[in-house]
Specification:
alpha+beta, 7-stranded mixed beta sheet, 15 helices
Length: 374
Amino acid sequence: MKINFFFLGSITALLLVLVSCNGNKQLSDTEIDLFIESYFDAQTFGEDKVEAFNNTLSDSLIGWANAAWAGVPKSYDKANTDADWFYEDSITYELHDVMMLGSEASVMGSATWHSAGIETFGQSFSGIIGMENGKMVWKRFMGVWTNSLAKDFLWPTTEAKDIMSDYNEMRKHMMELSNEKAMAISDSLVMKDPNWATAHLGQLHYYWLEKEDVKLKEVYDMAMGKLKGASLAEQYMIKSYNPAKGSDTRGNQRMALLHAPNDPMIRTWYAWGEKDFDVAIDILQKGLNRMPDNTGLNNMIAYKYMYNGDMDKAEKHFKLNTMSNPNMANGHDSYGDFLLEKGDKKGAKASFMKAFKLDSNFTVSKEKADKIEE
C-alpha cells in the first residue's frame, strides 16, 4: 500500500489519463495510480476544477455519494458539480486493494481532505474504473464519509497494548449483568496498566450493584487518583460511581453521555435512572437506531415498555435479546420477568432456569424460579 499527497498547485501533467491502446486492454497498476492521482488532484482548490473533476467521471456514472446514510445508487448528472466543493489545500489517499476485471478494475481505498491545516473530511471509497472515449473514468463509485460516522464512545486512555478486545468484552459483560466476568477482566486490565482509570469500571460496577460500599469506596478512590490525562467522558463516568451520600450519579452520567453520546453503555445506565418512561424510551431508541441488537439497550427499553404498560413492544425487545444472544443468561432472566408479568408462570420458570443453567452466578434466577407455584 502507499499513500500519495496532493497540494495546491501540484497539478499533474496527467490530469487526464489518456491510453492509446484499444478499450479491451487490461489496465495497468501505473495507469490506475495515475488516474486516482488525477481524480483527487482535481478536487483541490484551483481553476477549472469542475471540468477536471467531471473528466474523471463516466457520462453514465452510477454513484452512491454517502452509503452511510439512507438512499440508493443514482445516475450522476455532471451539471450538478459545483466549483464551491473544491476549496481544500490538499488530499491524502491510500489504495487498499485493486482487482483487475478484464478491461476494468475494482478499486478500494480511503482519503482525507485538508484545509488550513485541519482535516475536513474523510472517505472510504470503492468503485469500478474503465475506459470511455479514450480516457479512464469512474463507471461506478460508492463512498462513505467517515467523518459522519458515530465515533464518540468511552474510549480508554491507556498506554497498554492490545487491550481493546478485553476492554470491550468487559463492557459487554457489564451491560449483560455478568458482573463476575466483568470484574475478572477488570482485574486483569488494572494489572496491564496500573495507571489506567477506566480499567476499574468492571470492579466499580460489581461493587456498586452488590452494594459493597466499603470495597466500592476503595476502588473508587483508586480510580479517581488515576484521572490525570483521562478523557472528560472517562472522568465523569468514574465519578458516577461515587458512593458518597448525596453524590450526583445522574448528573455525572449525563455529562459522560454528553462527551460520549454514541456509547451504548453510558446511554443504558443513564436511561436506567430516568423516571419518565417516554424520555427514557427516547434516550434508548436513539442508541438502538445505530445498534439495533445491542443487549443493554434492548434489555433496558424492554423493561421501560413493560413498566409503562406496552407489553407488545416490551416482548419484541426481550425476545430479540434471547434470539441474538441465546447464551446470555440475563436475556433469559429478563424474559422470565416479562413472562411472569404476563401471567405465564410455566414459561417464566423455564426462562429463569435457562438463565441459571447458562450462568450459575445467576442465583437470583434460580430463586425466582423456586418461588413460582404453577
